[in-house]
Design a protein that fits this description.
Strand order of the largest sheet: 2-3-1-4-5
Strand content: 5-15%
Shape: globular
Distance between the termini: 14 Å
Number of strands: 5
Largest sheet: 5 strands, parallel
Length: 209
């Protein structure tokens, strides 16, 4: 676990197909903190029948997007749980400037701050190739090239400004996301270690911290 003298509060950001979900879990395990994705938080609250979950479920069933206010409330609730006291890795949040500000305010109210924002950089052609292969492997006929390109366009339009904010704060760790799983994981650990952020143990895949 992250000790009282150090923290591990990370964001992991990257386009669809960058492998951020997999890498995020490995980094979180290595630092002994929970990996938290907004999708998982939504599902946990819905399945748990919480008041927040009921509100999310009604919105999702109506085919609408969960508004920022509710998304931020859910994330704050999750980060306030005891297992996130020593740190966390957020995947899929924040997605826009309003969510960036909300997270900063929440952390500041607890005397905390982010330690690093891990950006997995993958060329658009590589992302499309990976997503097309994943669609074939999973038999997802709805993942057409047009749909994939649209998702990447949304990422580029919505996430670039967020990264600019964090880059201005000196928090962004730019990682080349092209390579084998182990190669990319090793790059992440090396880059974090260079910032004085060393994992207590590896993520279980042989990558050194």
């Amino acid at each position: 676990m992250a000790s009282a003298n150090s923290s591990a509060r990370f964001l992991i950001v990257g386009p669809q197909g960058s492998g951020k979900g997999t890498q995020g879990v490995l980094v979180a395990e290595a630092f002994g903190v929970p990996s938290i994705s907004t999708g998982d938080v939504f599902r946990e609250n819905i399945s748990g029948g919480t008041e927040l979950g009921k509100r999310v479920q009604s919105i999702v069933e109506a085919g609408d997007l969960v508004p920022d206010e509710l998304t931020c409330e859910l994330v704050r609730d999750r980060l306030a749980q005891s297992d996130a006291a020593g740190g966390f890795l957020l995947d899929g949040f924040p997605r826009n400037r309003g969510q960036v500000d909300d997270l900063a305010d929440f952390l500041a109210s607890r005397g905390e701050a982010l330690d690093a924002v891990i950006e997995l950089s993958v060329p658009r052609d590589e992302s499309i190739a990976r997503l097309r292969q994943r669609a074939i492997d999973q038999g997802r006929t709805d993942d057409t090239e047009e749909v994939i390109a649209n998702r990447l366009a949304i990422y580029e339009r919505e996430t670039a400004p967020i990264l600019d904010v964090y880059r201005g704060q000196g928090l962004v760790v730019d990682i080349d996301g092209v390579g084998t799983l182990d190669e990319v994981t090793a790059r992440i650990f090396e880059a974090l270690a260079a910032r004085g952020l060393s994992a207590s143990h590896d993520g279980g895949n042989g990558a050194a911290a």
